[in-house]
Amino acid sequence: MRRLTWEDLWSLLLDGTLDTLYMVALAALFTLLIGLPLGVLLFVTRRGGVMSAPRLNQLLGSIINVGRSLPFIVLLIALIPFTRVIVGTTLGSTAAVVPITIGAFPFFARIVESALDEVDKGRIEAILSMGGNAWHVISKVLLPEALPALLAGITLTIVMLIGFSSMAGVIGGGGLGDLAIRYGYQRFNDQVMIGTVVIMVAMVQLVQSTGDRLVRRLAHRR
Prior knowledge:
Elements: H1 6-44, H2 54-69, H3 72-78, H4 80-87, H5 93-117, H6 121-129, H7 134-145, H8 147-167, H9 175-185, H10 190-221
Helix pairs in contact: 1-5, 1-8, 1-9, 1-10, 2-5, 4-5, 5-8, 6-7, 8-10, 9-10
């Protein structure tokens, strides 16, 4: 196997990095759009919640627990037919966004529920005593008060998505994971393997440090 030139190596790593960023950004957006309202719904439909609906809460909780119980690599393979229906293919970065999102939003929904659970119950009761409804509680108390914890949860979820994106390479999902498998593992190319590891570690460190900094700044202002 011929040794890659530096130009080839940088080109491969750049393309893989851009594909990974694309997958993570798109999956993070969809995870937020699905997981945030689902987590809020889980909290408010609890027994005794502002929109108490125990049966609905139990159903949603069961669905989320099933999604969280499946190892992501199993989920990747099991969702191949569904991904093909949604995207039209199972290969490439766009196709990988489907299983990555489905694997991540149950986790984020539980994070949202836990974050809302930390909000002072006295504030909720104060809004209700003044004639506020469930929407007022959610928009005026729950989300604003839980914002630092939610931001920390988003940071944790993005870090997890980076890991998911690398596993998507197993089914040809593209990105750094696919690069590490095709070149680093199958072709025994240490240059590519080391490059992908360094870039992914740097990405995780950057996301985590940025998220922690924003959480501290937000908590300090509050």
